Structures are given as structure tokens and as C-alpha cells.
């Protein structure tokens, strides 16, 4: 049924778009901070790259959830599975945890990474400490991803 | 297998032995020297010597940084070339060898000359830009400079805003003056104006109203120009001058470049000076009188004999006392673990060193960390790549210190992935069905259960360590009843929940009683009871801690799914005619490398967090200060 498929696709799109927005903002924040630091100390590129890349995972989680949706709908093989109205909604709802947690945690992880960049500027040896701090924020995106995967796995088509 | 034992060193020696003793200590890298100057009367020493060394060190660093930029070594090549080495016996000879100082002075003279030339070039360029508006003026510049007025007429040069051009034309029709356009700039026009002297006042007023700004030649140009030269000619000569200077600059650059051959000598000198400074600073920490010095410090207990034999030659002249630290003293911390576990010290260090007389968590976290990274990445192919690459780096880079430890750790973690990737993941996205225990994509719940069981084990184990530590510190009641209570309560609760057996509930109740009656520090029995009851609420914390380990499933799945996506994309690209194999290859290699990067980063960081937040919070308090013996440490070179 076309309506069910449409709703399911909206779910996959939301997962990748919301996570992507979160990551884009987060990476943007950290990237701006690191460019500022690098203008003084270009040699820090390598260690700062790590902090800038860190808020990028939410986008990847969203992407892989969307891919799971695509697999579930059988869109890769060219023969889509029939999805009814309720199943479409189920898939959309299953995508929300990863999308919404990714959106918010990506932004906040970006802020933590940006301040981590300033910290590394002054204490280059303590690179891993801000990375761990950022990972504390990412936890919730990971949990969102976990629930999305479990929900998608549980939906019967 | 824990925090290494430290001995306190006290040494009194005649003051004249200070240099040889400190040199010996630095070479042997045995003892950390504590501040004792403040407590004891001491002779003021001149700061002058230290200042001099600081200046010399700074000069050397600047020269090295500058020359390094000229040496033209690429980043990768730099990584592969091992650091130059210096034998300890050469230090004295090199220190008093004046060649490096001469090289340094030559460099500084050249650099100063080069800076001057650059400044001159910049000035010439600036002057040329200022002359630009007059480029088309045919009138010789010296005329412009000198020819201001005759008996009857005045001449002046200046700029007007483009917007007032029309107004000017209007004026030209009525007023007795002539104006000619010289050149156009971005927003203004350069003009020459000639007018009758008697009308000077009126004309100036008109011009000012229109926004006139007189143009005058800079002092530099006035002194530079020759008689009869137009602006264009002057500019050409400025250019020539600039080229001459640039050529001279290039020659100096070449000379500086030739100096890069001496870079190694400068690096050696810089490190020798740095270590001399370190020794001077150590000296400042000693207690001193006119005739004697007093040194307080720490030595690893295992190095006791080495220290004694090191001081053998001075035996008659010094007093040495080695003793166990008293309970008020806080010795520095050195970790001492079997070689197998040493790479994992990195994780402990990152969190912070343990306090003196407490437990080193390295050995306990190692197996968990190993398994967690294995599960969180769970990709055997990536594990193989990481292990091999780290082994190769260990072999070729010959690095020391932190990087070496990290590479060793990566070898382990790669190994963990080869193992767990085969069991619960795949090889580059393809599960190896023969050995696969759990397919996380088809059966995520089993994987989740595995992660939670491991989490429960670690949290329980952390509480057990706290119990053991409490017993060691003679905190018996708290250790046995509270920590013991949790240790009993948690598994029996799960057992009771799963089997419904009465024994489980009974044991859980027993554990809970211990917590209720012994966990609150209050003395009032009622407050104690309710405080204990409230502490029972900590069970939610234990629950949250265990659930936190579910991230292992999410991270492991993420790796598998992305690997699968890469394979699917590569397979799709394979179908493209002609170039399909090439594009598929790019996608396969690039995609998997990307996934390797992010999954290892995630696996590493999240596994570390599980140690820090979930495991360490049960039993570990950081706060030790690192043991840093006075030693020869090179920024650029290795001391042999």
C-alpha cells in the first residue's frame, strides 16, 4: 500500500535528516573553534580533527538507521515489501529515537567539543579528556540508535 | 602489580659535590627531588645563571624552528626518520664545544639581515602603491614637489571624490581656475589645479567644500627621486630596487638554507641546555647552607641498590638515609604492572593516577577493556588491519614513550577485534558463519544480553574491589555489610527474578539488611535506619550502570551495518560498465577505511567511558601525582 510505504520512507528520511542536522551543527561549532586555534598553531590539525569529527557520529547513526529502513522495505532489490498504513507509522515512530536524540545530542556534543578544542589549545597533552567528555553526551544518541535498531528489528512486515 | 613501592631519600653532602651529584642523578634517572629549600635556611643563589641559560635555550629553539621550516622534510618522512641520538659521554664535550654557538650566531646575523631586507621590500611596495595614482602624470615629480607657485599663479595636486566631479565642472565655468584630471582611483579622482594667486582663498574654499584632499609626496619618495623623473619612471626604479633587494634576500635565504645541515648540532645543544636548566632548577629545590646541601626525594624501592652503588664513590663524604614514607607523607606514584598489562596503564593514566597506598586498577580493567573494544567494533577485518599497521609502526617508527604504549595497546585491541569480530561480527561486513556465535543483525537480543551480563560482571567486580580495599583500610563494618550487602543483593535479586526461588529472595533481603543498617554514617539509630533505607535506592544507579553497557550492542551493530552498506554500494558500483571494478574498488577500500576510523574511535572512547564512569566509580579514587625522576629528556634527541 502506497500510503504505508510513504510514511515509512518519511521515517527513514527523518532519521537521516535529524541526525544529519545535529551533526552538521555540532561539527560546525567544533570546526569554527578549531580553525581559530589553528590560526595560532597550525600543527594541532591532527589532534583537533578528532574533536571536530566527533559530533559527526549522530549523522552516521541516522544514516545507518535509514539504511536499515531501506533494507527492511526491500528497496535495494527493486521489489518493495508491501507496507500497510499502521506498519508505515510503526517504522516512522521507530526512527524517531535516533533522529531526535541525534539532533539534540549532536548540537550539544559540538559545544562540548568546541570547548574541548580550546582546552587542547592550552593543554595539548590532555586531548583524550575532552574526547571522553564529548562521549558522555554521545551516549544518548547511542541509546537512541539502539532503540531504533531494536524497534525496527521487532516490526513485522 | 600495583602502585610501585617508594622509598624516601634524604641526603646531606658538601656543597662542592652538588654539580657532580646532580649530574649523576640526572644520568641515572633514579630520584625525584622534592622542594626542601623553603623549609630550610638556604644561601641565595644568583638567578643570573638560570636567566642566561633560559635566553640561550630560547634562542636555540627559535633557530631550530626556523631552520626546520627550511629543511624541507615532509611530514611522513619526518615520522619515519628516528630521532638523532646522543651518548651521555658526549654531553660534556658538546657543551663546551663552541661550534654550535658560532652556528647560532651566524644564523641570527643572517636572520636579522633577512628581516631588514623584508622590511625594506615591504616599504618599497608601499611607496609604489602610493605613487600609483600619479603613474600617468607626465610632469616630472620634482616639479610637482617644488613647483607650487609663481608670482601670479598657484598649482596644487590632490584628490576629489568622484561624486563631486559634476559640481566641480559647474564651478569651472564660473571660477577663475583650471583643473586637469591625472588619474582615476577606486572612489576618488586625482587632479591638478591651477589658479590665480589672488583668488587663492576663494578657490581653496570651493575645493574644500567639494571634499578636496591635497596630495603630497612621501618623504621617502622625495629623497628617492632624481631630477626630471616622472612618477612612472620613479616607480620603475622602485621596482628595480625591490628586485635587487629580493635577489639579495634570496642569497641570504640560500645561506640560511645551507645552515640546515647543522640542524642536528643545534638540536643537541638545545637539549643539553634544557637539561642543564632542569638540573639548575633541581638545585634550587635543595636545602642549602654555605658548606652543605640537603636533598629530599623519592626513589623506587626496586632501585635502592642502584642508588647506593651510584653513590659508592662519595660514601665517605655524604650522609644518605633511605626510609619508608611516613603515613602523613604522600609519595609520588609510579605504576608497576606485568609487561602484558602495561599498555593498559594508558587508560588509568588518562583518568588520573591512584592515590598513594591505594589500588592500581590497570590489571582489573584490562580484560574488560579488551573485550568491550572487541564487542563495540566487532569487525575482524579491521582488527587485522589495525594490528598489522600498529606492529609495522612499532617496528619502523622506533618511537618511545606514550606513542609506543599506545601502539602496543592498538595491537591488543586489533587482536580483540579479530577474536570478537569472528565470533559476533564479521570480516569486512561478511559474517564468518562457521565460527559465528551470535549474528547481531538477526539476533540483537542475545548480543544485548551478552553486553548486559558483562556489564553486570564489571559493576559487581568493581564493588568487590571496593570491599577488599575497605578491609585493607580496616573499614570492616562498611566493607562487609554495605559492599558485601550489594554483592549479595544484586545477583540474588536477579536469581530470584529468573527462577522465583525463595532462597534468592532470602539472600537479597539479607544483603539489603546489611545496607540498611550499616550504610548511613548517622549515629542516631532512627536516622541511621532511614538513611540506610534511602541508600537502598542506589539500586537504581546499579541498574542504570548495567544498562549503560547496552551501548556495546549499538556500536557493534553500527560497525556491521555500515560495513554492509559499503559492500552493498560497492556491489552496485560493480555493475557499471567498463569502470565498474575501479569505482567498486574505491568504494570498498575508502568506505571500509572510513568505517574503521569511526568505529575504532567510537569503540575506544565508549569502552573507556565504561571504565571511567561505570567501573571506576565503584572503587577508584584518582589523585596521585606522577613520579618524575630528574632525568635526561630530549625534546629533539634521544639520550643514550
C-alpha Rg of chain B (nearest Å): 39 Å
Give the termini separation of chain B: 28 Å
Largest sheet of chain B: 5 strands, antiparallel
Number of strands of chain B: 15
Number of helices of chain B: 23
Rg of chain A, Å, rounded: 18 Å
Give the largest chain-chain interface (CB within 8 Å).
A-B, 26 and 25 residues
Shape of chain A: elongated
* Unreliable residue stretches of chain A: none
Number of domains of chain B: 4
Structure description:
The complex is a heterodimer of chains A (157) and B (640). Chain A has 5 helices and no strands. Chain A has one domain (2-154): Four Helix Bundle (Hemerythrin (Met), subunit A), CATH 1.20.120.610. With 157 residues, chain A is mainly α. In chain A, helix 1 (2-40) packs antiparallel against helix 2 (45-53), helix 1 runs antiparallel to helix 3 (57-72) and helix 3 (57-72) packs parallel to helix 5. The mean pLDDT of chain A is 90. The longest helix of chain A has 39 residues, at 2-40. Chain A has helices at residues 2-40, 45-53, 57-72, 85-122, 128-154. Chain B is extended. Chain B has 640 residues and is α+β, with helices and mostly antiparallel strands. Chain B folds into 4 domains: 1-42 and 286-332, Alpha-Beta Plaits, CATH 3.30.70.120; 43-125 and 233-281, no CATH class; 139-229, Alpha-Beta Plaits; 339-472 and 538-623, no CATH class. In chain B, the strands form 5 sheets. In chain B, strands 2, 3, 9, 10 and 11 form a 5-stranded antiparallel sheet that branches. A 4-stranded antiparallel sheet of chain B has the order 6-7-5-8, with helices on one face. In chain B, a hairpin with a 3-residue loop joins strand 6 and strand 7. Chain B has 23 helices and 15 strands. The interface between A and B is medium-sized, with 26 and 25 residues.
